[in-house]
Amino acid sequence: MARDFRFGIGLRSIKSAARLREKVRQFEDLGFDVLHLPDHLGAPAPFPAMVAAADAARTIRVGTYVLNAAFYKPALLARDAIDTDILTDGRLELGLGTGYVREEFEAAEIPYPSAAKRVTHLRHTVDHLKRVAPSLPLLIAGSGDRVLTLAAQHADIIGFSAGVPGPGADDALAERVAFVRAAAGHRYADVEFNIAITAVPTDASGVPDLTLTRAYSPQATDEQLLALPSVLSGSPHHIAETLMAQRERYGMTYFTVQDYHGKYFADVIKALR
Q1: Residue 157, φ and ψ in degrees, nearest 5
Q2: I want to staple 105 with a disulfide (CB 3.0 to 4.6 A). Which of 65, 112, 130, 225 is the partner?
Q3: Which residue range(s) make up the domain with 82?
Q4: Do residues 31 and 62 touch, judged by C-beta distance below 8 A?
Q5: What's the total number of domains in the chain?
Q6: Is residue 157 part of a domain?
Q7: Is 62 a member of any domain?
Q8: Cα-Cα-Cα-Cα dihedral of 145, 148, 150, 152, to 10°?
Q9: Is residue 1 in some structural domain?
Q10: Is 256 helix (H, G, I), strand (E, B) or coil?
Q11: Rounded distance, CA 36 to CA 273, Å?
């Protein structure tokens, strides 16, 4: 039996407490299941924002998408996560990644470790969280073998990225899903698959704005970007059919869009429920 769809929406800025409450209630009314907070300098501080958001909402869950694990000592992160889960009435989904923006490490006056050391620290963080907060849902996002192996072995939710396939690769996402299937073993059926949607239409044209997508793949052509699983085009009904196809092909059932996609995407949610 296919897993039910879930839908997250990212919040990239906070203007005031009143505006936050208004936006959270709007997202909830539009049908979104989870409010996601990033972990970048210049973005909202995720833990206080999640507590305030959950207090304003009735049912929407809250989560980080995703924390830069290298910014945190595991014991201190666990303290914040456990208390945030308590203060949100058990609605926290803790998303973790290795961190990748060198300039943010420098601005925070934190040494920028090698990729290998960042993955090792992420594993150390996950091990600690599993020991002190075993019931806390974990999302682990990444694309490399080591991160996806860690996610396959320990995560409740795996966040996939959908980059432009390299030479000789027809479907990079399908290859990564197959890798996770092999790494997860008996856990595979219990893990939820998520993908961050970077482009959605915002008007009746059905044409997505590729600005955010192009920031991650600046050398790609429009044709290549429009073919990515993270880019959705067409009417809400057409997009709903696309997501059903992604559930069938990749096992994707949890989709996260950006806050400015919310109103258009709400009609997609209606078509799938």
Answers
A1: -135, 135
A2: 112
A3: 6-271
A4: no
A5: 1
A6: yes
A7: yes
A8: -130
A9: no
A10: strand
A11: 21
Q: Which among 17, 78, 99 is positioned nearest to 53, based on CA atoms?
A: 17
65 burial via Cβ count (<10 Å: 0-12, 13-18, 19+): buried
Position 176: which residue type? R
Spatial separation of the C-alpha atoms in residues 254 and 263, rounded to whole Å = 18
3-class SS at 92?
A: strand
Cβ-count burial of 203 within 10 angstroms (0-12 exposed, 13-18 middle, 19+ buried)? exposed
Q: Got the DSSP string for 37-83? A: E---TTSPPHHHHHHHHHHH-SS-EEEES-EEGGGS-HHHHHHHHHH
pTM above 0.90, yes or no: yes
Specify the CATH number for the domain of residue 118.
3.20.20.30
Q: How many residues does the chain have?
A: 273
Determine whether 107 is exposed, middle or buried from the number of CB atoms within 10 Å of its CB (0-12, 13-18, 19+). Answer: exposed
Using alpha carbons only, give the angle 183, 167, 188 rounded to the nearest 5 degrees. Answer: 15
pLDDT in tens, the chain (273 residues): 689 999 999 999 999 999 999 999 999 999 999 999 999 999 999 999 999 999 999 899 999 999 999 999 999 999 999 999 999 999 999 999 999 899 999 999 999 999 999 999 999 999 999 999 999 999 999 999 999 999 999 999 999 987 666 555 678 899 999 999 999 999 999 999 999 999 999 899 999 999 999 988 888 899 999 999 999 999 999 999 999 999 999 999 999 999 999 999 999 999 999
Q: Establish if 254 belongs to a structural domain.
A: yes
**How many angstroms separate the CA atoms of 113 and 100, rounded?**
10
Measured between alpha carbons, how far is 170 from 203 in angstroms, rounded to an integer? 30
